[in-house]
Write a structure and sequence with these properties.
By secondary structure, this protein is an alpha/beta fold. About 40% of the residues lie in helices and about 20% in strands.
Length: about 300
C-alpha cells in the first residue's frame, strides 16, 4: 500500500456541499489521505467552513476560474500521492470508498483509472461510465434519439459489477499517478465537460485499463456549480464537445456533426420550450437552457458576448 493517497477537490462556489465532501474524505477508513482543495476564485463562503480542519486540508487558490482540468493539474502539481482521487465538491463518498479504490488499484497494477458507483440524492444509480464515442451514436444523439428511446444509451452504461470500460465520470475518479503522468494530465484545452472521456481514452492508449468499481460508492448531487451559470456552462459544454469530437473522431466527423448542430439545438429548444410552458417549478432552468440553445444557434459554441 502506498504511504499516502491524494484527494483533489475542485471548488467553485459550491457552498455547503464543499464542507460535506471534505468531511466525508476526512472520515475515510483505513487510509492516510492527503486532501487538496483547488479553489477556482470562489466568491461565496464555501472555504470558510474548512478552517476547522486546520492543516488537515490544503487549499490552493488559483486566482481565476481555470475550469476543471487545469484545476486538477494544479492539484497534481502540489501533491505526491501514488493514487489520486479527483472529485467534484457535490460528491460525498461512503466511509470505505477510498480504501476500496486503493486496495483495488494496488492489486491490479495494469489498471490506470477507476470510477466508483455514484447514486443521486434519491438513491438511484447514475450512469457514470461508458464506451468510447462512435459516429453513428453521436449522430443519433444529435436527433435526441436517446430521449425517445431510452434503450439507446449510446456511450453511457450502468454496469451491475466491476468491469472494464472506456471512461468513468469526472465527478469522481481515481488514477494511478504514474498513469496520469504518462499522458501529461488532463487536457487543459477543455475548460469543462468531456475531459473525463478524453482522459479515459488517452490512458487506455497509453497501455492502462479503465475500470468501473461499484465496490466503492458515493452520492453525487450533480451540477451544483454549473447551475449557477447554466447558460454559459451549456455553451462551454458544446465547445468542449466540438473539440473532443475533432480530437478523437477526426475532422470529417466533426464537420458532419457541426452541420447537424442546428437540428439538435432546435429540437432541444422545442423540448425545453414545452417544459417552460408546462412545469412552473422548472421555468428558471428552462429559461437558461433556451438562452444557451439560441446563443449556440446564432453565435456558435463560443463565449464571446455571452
Amino acid at each position: 500500500m502506498p504511504e499516502r493517497a491524494t484527494a483533489i477537490v475542485v471548488n467553485w462556489n459550491a457552498g455547503a456541499h464543499l464542507s460535506r465532501c471534505v468531511a466525508a474524505l476526512i472520515d475515510q477508513r483505513g487510509i492516510d489521505l492527503d486532501i487538496v482543495v483547488v479553489d477556482n476564485a470562489s466568491s461565496d463562503n464555501s472555504l470558510k467552513a474548512l478552517n476547522v480542519y486546520g492543516d488537515r486540508v490544503r487549499v490552493v487558490q488559483t486566482g481565476e476560474n481555470l475550469g476543471f482540468g487545469r484545476a486538477i493539474n494544479r492539484g497534481l502539481a502540489v501533491s505526491d500521492g501514488a493514487i489520486v482521487i479527483a472529485l467534484n465538491p457535490d460528491v460525498v463518498l461512503r466511509p470505505n470508498a477510498v480504501d476500496a479504490i486503493v486496495e483495488f488499484l494496488n492489486a491490479h497494477t495494469d489498471v490506470g483509472m477507476v470510477g466508483p458507483r455514484l447514486k443521486d440524492a434519491e438513491g438511484r444509480v447514475i450512469a457514470s461510465c461508458g464506451d468510447a464515442p462512435k459516429l453513428a451514436g453521436e449522430i443519433g444523439r444529435k436527433f435526441l434519439l436517446h430521449k425517445l428511446f431510452p434503450m439507446l444509451n449510446f456511450r453511457r452504461r450502468w454496469p451491475a459489477k466491476s468491469e472494464a470500460v472506456d471512461w468513468v465520470t469526472g465527478a469522481c475518479f481515481a488514477v494511478q499517478r504514474r498513469a496520469i503522468a504518462a499522458v501529461n494530465g488532463l487536457d487543459e484545452a477543455i475548460f469543462m465537460y468531456y475531459e473525463d472521456v478524453d482522459l479515459g481514452l488517452r490512458i487506455q492508449r497509453a497501455g492502462w485499463r479503465v475500470v468501473y468499481l461499484p465496490e466503492a460508492e458515493g452520492m453525487h448531487i450533480g451540477g451544483e456549480s454549473s447551475k449557477q451559470a447554466l447558460t454559459r456552462m451549456l455553451v462551454v459544454s458544446e465547445a468542449s464537445y466540438a473539440y473532443f469530437i475533432r480530437k478523437h473522431l477526426g475532422q470529417w466527423a466533426a464537420r458532419l456533426l457541426l452541420v447537424l448542430r442546428p437540428i439538435e439545438m432546435m429540437l432541444r429548444a422545442a423540448l425545453w420550450g414545452g417544459v417552460f410552458l408546462l412545469i412552473r417549478s422548472r421555468r428558471l432552468e428552462a429559461r437558461g437552457r433556451l438562452r444557451a440553445y439560441w446563443f449556440v444557434l446564432t453565435h456558435g459554441a463560443v463565449e464571446e458576448g455571452l
